[in-house]
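tool_call: predict_structure(chain=1)
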Amino acid sequence: MDTETAAGYPVPTDALRRPLSLFDVSGRTAVVTGASGAYGRTIAVALGALGCRLLLASGSKEPLEAVAREAADAGGTVETLVRRPDTLDDARDIVAAANARQVGVITDPAFPPDLQAWGRAFVELRPAETAAKVAPRPMPIVHGTADKGVPVSDPRLLAEPGGPNAELRLVGGARPPRSGPRAFSIPASG
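tool_result:
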């Protein structure tokens, strides 16, 4: 790396000319809220130029679409969501949608039509009640014992209301992948 001297200290010239070159975000996903504003636009276009996948959120549809085109023209892969993060719950819903899109659970750009209702459904979901409704159909439940995010007691609680058709298999030492298609695949039984 070329360096110059400033006040007696070496200074990398490339970093001075292109400070964003210090960050490798190519292929990573970023959520930019307030994307149609001046700061949001600047961040979106800069991250797009660095090859970042973007989920741009704003309450203003037309300006948001203009920023999305600009970020895509700069080199980013862009999705938009017309939604203002006015509350912590709104921000949580935007991040959940971004993650679901990144791992391929959501592939339709128009989904969900109501992000707030979609986020509420996760909070209001009662897995044990739902499991009881699955019976008498078979209900396989597979859980890794090394999963740090979900304790082993949770799948046991899920199996109980499923009755005799709920088959719980604990896989010793296994932990789930947190992203990619494997995070949502069902292992074949052997």
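agent: Residues 9 and 127 are 60 Å apart (CA to CA). Proceeding to next step.
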